[in-house]
Each structure stands twice: as C-alpha cells, then as structure tokens.
Design brief:
The complex is a heterodimer of chains A (112) and B (113). Chain A contains no helices and eleven strands. With 112 residues, chain A is an all-beta fold.
C-alpha cells in the first residue's frame, strides 16, 4: 500500500504567477483535502474533493482551485500568487470521508 | 463553528520527565478530536483520535489523551518523554467525518537531554 505523495517538494515563484501542486492519494482513497500551513501556524483547510466533486471549502479566495481525477489524484492551482501564499501545502487522503486522513509530506511554496 | 486553542506554543521538558500538552476546543455540536504530530520537514501523522466511547485514548508510542466534555478539553500526556518526541503537536477537531478538520496553532515540544 503506497502512501500519499506530493510534487514538487519545493517551489519558488514570483508574485502574480500561477502554480500547480500535485497529490497522489493513498491506494483505495477517494477523498482528498488540501491544507495551507503558514510558518509557525496550524494547517488551514482549503477544500475537499470526493469522487471528483468539490465537497467543501474553507475561507480561501476563488484563485485557489482544485481538481480531482478519476484515479483520485488531485491538483491544487493558485492563480495570481501573492507573497502571503508562501506556505507548506499539504494534501490528505481518506476513504469515503473516514475520519482518519493520511497526510503527504507537503510542497513548500515560496513566493518572491 | 469550531475552534481549537493550544495555550502553550513551546514546551521544553527534560528527557524521561512527564509532559502535558493542553488543548481546548469550542463547538456547539458533538465533535471528533485528534492529535497530530509533525516532525521537522515532514507532513502530519495521526497520533491518536477520539470518536466516541472511552474518553481515554492511547497511541502506540506511549501518548494518551483524555476527552473531557465538561471542560471542552483534550489534553495530551506522556509519562516519560524521549528525545525522539521532539516535534510540533497539533490538536484538531471535526464535527463529523464529512466536515473539515480545524487545527490548533500547534505546540512545539522540545525534549532536552
């Protein structure tokens, strides 16, 4: 059974650019959630996808968008990057909304 | 809406000493409660969870947490810490398995040799 993987591990972008982060869910998991973890803070919920449909969203602007694919891998897209978007982005997968989420190692994004 | 408070941002403790990391939550509905651990430069790992039943839950590496509904608390304890326990610990709450998970700001545990 493979774990949750994320790519890339690190990324540097400049303000105004767009970025795509990727997540491969744990085998058999059809639910994925994305979180933003700013330095020194706890993770903040961005949104959740279940069977390719968005199932809930946190307090993030529309320039944060996502996709879930038929194989349950997922993408987080951020447009018009701002300096405050610099953070560790975590994805977590689970099966049928089970309470136990398995987190990936994260993608560290730096916006200059 | 739910929220989580972790009053101690940093907790230094000597090796083999006991430790308690405090967590309080607010919610108008029944909740699921979690503790996650994050080692340096790694993602989060589930340490333990309370869903229902016994209010005392234990992890495989010696941590335990007790759900106290009247005090809306879910403090994490370990009777004897090791150097390897040095990490960031996050308390989290969710209203249901369909709801988002709300994390606290975290407590940095530093175990001193």
């Amino acid at each position: 059974e493979t774990g949750v993987t994320q790519s890339p591990t690190h990324l540097i972008k400049t303000r105004g650019q767009q970025v795509t982060l990727r997540c491969s869910s744990q085998s058999g998991h059809n639910t994925v959630s994305w979180y933003q973890q700013a330095l020194g803070q706890g993770p903040q919920f961005i949104f959740q996808y279940y069977r390719e449909e968005e199932n809930g969203r946190g307090n993030f602007p529309p320039r944060f968008s996502g996709l879930q694919f038929p194989n349950y891998s997922s993408e987080l897209n951020v447009n018009a990057l701002e300096l405050d978007d610099s953070a560790l982005y975590l994805c977590a997968s689970s099966r049928d909304f089970q309470e136990t989420q398995y987190f990936g190692p994260g993608t560290r994004l730096l916006v200059l | 809406a739910q929220s989580v408070t972790q009053l101690d941002s940093q907790v230094p403790v000597f090796e083999e000493a006991p430790v308690e990391l405090r967590c309080n939550y607010s919610s108008s509905v029944s909740v699921y409660l979690f503790w996650y651990v994050q080692y340096p430069n790694q993602g989060l790992q589930l340490l333990l969870k309370y869903l229902s039943g016994s209010t005392l839950v234990e992890s495989i590496n010696g941590f335990e947490a007790e759900f106290n509904k009247s005090q809306t608390s879910f403090h994490l304890r370990k009777p004897s810490v090791h150097i390897s326990d040095t990490a960031e610990y996050f308390c989290a709450v969710s209203a249901s398995t369909y709801d988002k998970v709300i994390f606290g700001p975290g407590t940095s545990l530093s175990v001193i040799p």
